[in-house]
């Protein structure tokens, strides 16, 4: 299976029906993508496939054949959302944070609070009550 | 004026959590590592007749109770819970057999046949004969005092299980080391794990526990990780290879602890003008199949059961009962959310019975300095019941808002609550916690066993040390909790990590500062080399506690809160939409305002889930909805807008006046929500207040 992973052409040798989550974590060692529930409810494993946020625990490897996959590692360590998630305390325990940031990337500029709530509705956080996450996103996305 | 304390400095976690570089238990890989799995009971009560491996055992490591080198008990308060069933099964999903294999698919495919002689289980704590713990608190003469009451109000209030839903499920990796093991894991209390492993493996053995980055705890990783660590250690020692056990969400929900369900009965005598003259409270908790932490959960629940009110004649009878469900355990609030729910809804009903404004009723009875609690603890100047109540009522214009909601589908509700910080009574003295500061070539290092589980331990401790030493925050390093390196600062529970451990660190810092004199840490190190300061917690000398009679100073201090919630109900579907929540909290002084606000917002959201959404369905003694698909926690769309107010009233015994905060926010939302629903003419006395339950209330 060939696909683009964080901008580089890669070939995966895992079984075609392997969960994309496991392929990323185990074959490519990209452990920034987290497993919280394994059934597409918590969003901790959110990655972008061709720019759209998906739960990588629900996506078989075969489905990303030829696609572009982006994980949290693909953002490097200097993305504005990464900084504001830490400075606004949008990250407490941090386990939902990579998925939250990937989901937030799908937001356009100047989103309303409601836009943000809808965009994050598939990503569970148990620590923050979401408010600090909104503040982190607003700080980056509001002009 | 302080420079570091009170400032929202950058978290010590750096940017690792936002880049995916932070290493959680499941991110660790060791050469030759096996995956471990737990085979569990499928009956709630009975005896194991036979265990048969229905697979080719080649390549598998198999462990049962006969492989335990030491004692087969998970050593906590009591020594009653086995790591692995020997014969008697006391609950569903009880560990019987352990398997390990390097291939996860083969491991999960291995079938084990277990035959049982089943016995009838007990699920209803009110029908159980097994009293796990009894507590009686008596103040004054309750029976005589009822004679002086104009009105007597009675009621029974119920709360259900609650699942923690830390987003990172439980997990550990055990790696053979010397003649023992090192366990890396998602744990709140590394030294609890040490205690349990010493008993399991033998005290002479080398045992080390290292806390990995932990994806939430909320009490759910207080005691249960000792069990998982024991399992992984047994497999690793037998296989001679590292073993990783990571629970999936279903296993985590089915097998690990939950918040204790409660049934609380109140009978209260009150005068026409609203003075509480007699309170008779009965608290029943469902403990589950083993003792675990239930005695202390019951203790905290009972101590908080009369609410933040003065009443000269109070009797609180508490019982935790054995049932045949997985043991219930620590969960943020630790018994207090249950009993404070009951008393705050009961106060609303007392006001209804008197035809009195419920805010006025609270104003009349709220504890003030000089008043005493049910255990006879006299409130000091750091008692802020009226402060938070008055501010919440003023800020939300509560009385007017309640009037304008009348006759609409909107409602507001209020709850006043408090939470004792630190271990109960003489608990902190018994714990004898220690903290250490090291002067190293890099600066000053904090070496404590207190864990960062999201709440900001590392950051807040570093602020306290920086402030007390008068050196920059960036010069403070925080050691990863590794039991071979750090001091045992006690468990990371009970809202004690800031107030108690922070206080010891402040004292360590002051001593280190005195020793450095005018030199900076780097200058001193260059001249004299490194040194350490180790100190032990000294509770305030005025604390007097009689554990036998349950009299005296239950806590060194309390934090105070008043929540006002505004919500809307759909009269056809009974769906409740929370709109806004104002949380007025007083917890001494915030060390890091943004972290503190995060604790309040997060704890309040968890409390909203407890109130409205989170229903554990138990079927045959086990959670039937053990998935995030049908056990629903608040999403961004279910969570109201928060207005958080942090009032200050310093506690002299805490670092820079700080009290404990972590659990307080959990106590208020449920009664505030139910009190709002009550004003919509729904006689709700139970949570979660699901649409189904509200429809039932409406049809009564």
Summarize, please.
With 143 residues, chain A is an alpha+beta fold. Chain A has two domains: 2-74, Beta-grasp domain (Ubiquitin-like (UB roll), Roll); 75-141, DNA polymerase, domain 1, CATH 1.10.150.
Note down, in words, how this protein is organized.
The complex is a heterodimer of chains A (143) and B (700). With 143 residues, chain A is α+β, with helices and mostly antiparallel strands. Chain A has helices at 20-27, 80-87, 97-104, 113-119, 131-141, and strands at residues 2-5, 8-11, 46-49, 52-55, 68-70. In chain A, strands 2-1-5-3-4 form a five-stranded mixed β-sheet, with helices on one face. In chain A, strand 1 and strand 2 (8-11) form a beta hairpin. In chain A, helix 2 (80-87) packs antiparallel against helix 5. Chain B has a seven-stranded mixed β-sheet. Chain B has a six-stranded mixed β-sheet with strand order 7-15-14-13-8-28. In chain B, strand 23 and strand 24 (576-586) form a beta hairpin. The mean pLDDT of chain B is 98. The chains are: A alpha+beta (143), B alpha+beta (700). The interface between A and B is large, with 54 and 56 residues.
Give the name of the CATH superfamily of the largest domain in chain A: Beta-grasp domain
Q: How many beta-strand runs of chain A?
A: 5
In CATH terms, what is the fold-level topology of the largest domain in chain A?
Answer: Ubiquitin-like (UB roll)
Could you list the spans of chain B in which at least 5 consecutive residues all have pLDDT below 50?
none
Approximately what portion of the residues of chain B adopt beta-strand conformation?
25-35%
Mean pLDDT of chain A: 97
Largest interface: A-B, 54 and 56 residues
Predict the CATH topology of the largest domain in chain B: Aldehyde Oxidoreductase, domain 4
Instruction: Report the CATH C-level class of the largest domain in chain A.
Output: Alpha Beta
Shape of chain B: globular
Number of helices of chain A: 5
Q: Note the main sheet of chain A.
A: 5 strands, mixed
* CA gyration radius of chain A, whole angstroms: 15 Å
Compute the number of helices of chain B: 19
Specify the structural class of chain B. alpha+beta
- What is the CATH first-level class name of the largest domain in chain B? Alpha Beta
């Amino acid at each position: 299976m060939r696909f683009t992973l964080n901008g580089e052409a890669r070939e995966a040798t895992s079984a075609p029906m392997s969960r994309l989550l496991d392929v990323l974590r185990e074959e490519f060692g990209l452990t920034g993508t987290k497993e919280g529930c394994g059934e597409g409810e918590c969003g901790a494993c959110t990655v972008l496939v061709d720019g759209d946020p998906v739960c990588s625990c629900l996506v078989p490897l075969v489905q990303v054949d030829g696609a572009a996959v982006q994980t949290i590692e693909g953002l490097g360590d200097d993305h504005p959302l990464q900084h504001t998630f830490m400075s606004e305390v949008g990250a407490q325990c941090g386990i939902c944070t990579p998925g939250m940031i990937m989901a937030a990337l799908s937001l356009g500029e100047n989103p309303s609070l409601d836009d943000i709530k809808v965009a994050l509705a598939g990503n569970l956080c148990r620590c923050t009550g979401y408010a600090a996450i909104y503040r982190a996103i607003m700080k980056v996305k509001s002009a | 004026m302080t420079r570091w304390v009170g400032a929202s400095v950058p978290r010590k976690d750096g940017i690792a959590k936002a880049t995916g570089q932070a290493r959680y238990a499941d991110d660790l890989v060791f050469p030759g590592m096996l995956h471990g799995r737990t085979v569990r009971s499928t009956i709630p009560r009975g005896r194991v007749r036979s265990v048969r491996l229905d697979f080719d055992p080649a390549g598998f490591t198999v462990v049962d109770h006969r492989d335990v080198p030491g004692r087969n008990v998970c050593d906590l308060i009591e020594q009653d819970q086995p790591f692995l069933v020997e014969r008697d099964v006391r609950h569903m999903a009880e560990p019987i057999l352990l398997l390990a294999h390097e291939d996860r698919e083969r491991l999960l495919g291995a079938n084990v046949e277990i035959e049982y002689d089943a016995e009838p289980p007990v699920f209803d704590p009110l029908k159980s004969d097994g009293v796990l713990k009894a507590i009686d608190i008596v103040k004054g003469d309750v029976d005589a005092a009822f004679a002086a009451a104009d009105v007597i109000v009675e009621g029974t209030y119920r709360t259900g299980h609650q699942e923690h839903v830390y987003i990172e499920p439980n997990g550990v990796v055990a790696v053979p080391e010397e003649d023992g093991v090192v366990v890396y894991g998602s744990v709140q209390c590394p030294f609890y794990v040490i205690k349990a492993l010493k008993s399991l493996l033998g005290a002479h053995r080398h045992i080390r526990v290292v806390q990995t980055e932990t994806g939430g705890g909320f009490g759910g990783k207080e005691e249960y990780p000792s069990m998982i660590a024991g399992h992984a250690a047994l497999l690793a020692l037998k296989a001679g290879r590292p073993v990783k056990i990571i629970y999936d969400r279903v296993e985590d929900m089915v097998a690990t602890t939950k918040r204790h369900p409660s049934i609380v009965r109140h009978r209260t005598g009150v005068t026409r003008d609203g003075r509480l003259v007699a309170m008779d409270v009965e608290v029943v908790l469902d403990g589950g199949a083993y003792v675990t932490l239930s005695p202390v959960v019951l203790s905290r629940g009972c101590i908080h059961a009369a609410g933040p009110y003065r009443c000269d004649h109070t009797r609180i009878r508490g019982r935790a009962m054995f049932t045949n469900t997985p043991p219930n355990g620590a969960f943020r609030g630790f018994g207090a959310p249950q009993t404070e729910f009951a008393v705050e809804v009961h106060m609303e009903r007392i006001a209804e019975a008197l035809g009195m404004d419920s805010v006025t009723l609270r104003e009349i009875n709220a504890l003030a300095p000089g008043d005493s609690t049910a255990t006879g603890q006299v409130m000091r100047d750091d008692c802020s019941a009226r402060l938070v109540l008055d501010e919440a009522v003023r800020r939300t214009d509560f009385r007017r808002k309640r009037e304008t909601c009348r006759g609409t589908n909107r409602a507001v509700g209020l709850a006043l609550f408090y939470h004792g910080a630190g271990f109960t009574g003489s608990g902190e003295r018994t714990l004898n916690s220690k903290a250490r500061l090291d002067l190293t070539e890099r600066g000053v290092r904090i070496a404590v066993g207190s864990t960062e589980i999201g709440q900001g331990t590392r950051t807040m401790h570093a602020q306290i040390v920086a402030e007390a030493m008068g050196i920059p925050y960036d010069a403070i390093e925080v050691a990863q909790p590794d039991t071979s390196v750090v001091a045992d600062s006690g468990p990371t529970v009970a809202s004690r990590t800031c107030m108690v451990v922070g206080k010891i660190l402040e004292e360590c810092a002051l001593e280190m500062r005195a020793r450095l004199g005018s030199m900076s840490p780097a200058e001193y190190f260059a001249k004299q080399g490194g040194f350490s300061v180790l100190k032990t917690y000294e509770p305030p000398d005025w604390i007097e506690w009689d554990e036998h009679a349950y009299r005296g100073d239950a806590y060194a201090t309390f934090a105070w809160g008043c929540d006002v919630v505004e919500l809307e109900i759909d009269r056809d579907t009974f769906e409740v939409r929370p709109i806004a929540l104002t949380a007025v909290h007083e917890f001494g002084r915030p060390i890091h305002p943004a972290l503190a606000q995060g604790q309040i917002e997060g704890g309040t959201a968890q409390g909203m889930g407890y109130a409205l959404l989170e229903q554990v369905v138990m079927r045959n003694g086990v959670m039937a909805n053990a998935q995030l698909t049908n056990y629903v926690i608040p999403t961004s769309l279910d969570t109201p807008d928060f207005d958080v107010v942090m009032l200050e009233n310093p506690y002299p015994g805490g670092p820079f006046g700080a009290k404990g905060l972590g659990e307080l926010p959990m106590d208020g939302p449920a009664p505030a929500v139910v009190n709002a629903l009550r004003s919509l003419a729904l006689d709700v006395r139970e949570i979660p207040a699901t649409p189904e339950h509200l429809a039932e209330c409406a049809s009564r």
